[in-house]
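**Backbone description:**
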Amino acid sequence: MNSTEKLQPAVIIDTSGYAAAGEEIRKEAARLLEQKIVDAVVGYQAGRRTGSSQPVVITDPAQAEKLVFSPTCVNNLSLYLTKAKKEIRAKGKLAVVAKGCDLRALAGLMGESQLKREELVIIGVVCAGVHAAGVASGEPLTDATIAKKCRECSVHIPEGADLIVGKLPELPNLSPTEKELLDKLDAMTPAGRWSYWKEQFTRCIRCLACRQVCPFCYCEQCLCDRGRPQAVDTSPRPAGNMGWHIVRAMHLAGRCVGCAECERVCPMDIPLNLLNRKMAQELKGLYGHEAGLTPTEKGPLTSYDEKDDQSFIK
């Protein structure tokens, strides 16, 4: 950097209201449990590292004091309401703390008959953004530390929740990083895009963390785990990796709500949300469909109408 150049100061995002939102969450959780409206509350508690947080399930009103909300509350808690977490569903009627992106996942799960709205209490929390993966605990929320998905979020306020806590601060105009990356990919030739994704997927070690954290990967037996017949090579080799990620992207097309949990947990930093965003972009262009905005019974790739465009058939 030229010695005459000056570093631009970080754009700090106001999260002073997060602590007050946490207090409201604690009060509501205690009330719901005391009045036996719900049997358990899924929320966030302080993590093992100072300044961090992690998911928690509480069943006693006294445990409500554990609940917190901060920019470190990155997990999409809708995962804990799926068949993948049967032990939590077995506790009875649940309440869940939900950011706007989490609420979109809940809407998608309702549309797929995985949840019933009347059996769920949603404590919506206004969210200006959360930390990106790898940000140190205690860091302020800035243009440098905010998650990429939050730069272009359209659901800061979780409309449709049973209760909404917190207030939305004035938000800075942040560069939409993922949109810029999508534009660059769109400008490439098909061969260039194939080469890009082939290079990304080569790093995959098939740990399946992306599947385990996704609220829409709730199948009790994944197609890709089957050995006879084997749908996808399970070893971390280029062909199997490409098959795994393409199959998963197609399964999520029209369903993914962009929570980016898959990308957050990937130990190899593969831009998985970028792939899912591209699929979502295509579905919106072709069908005007955007996942998770309202509970719907069927997405565009799981429904058929005789008037559907069939021009793609050669």
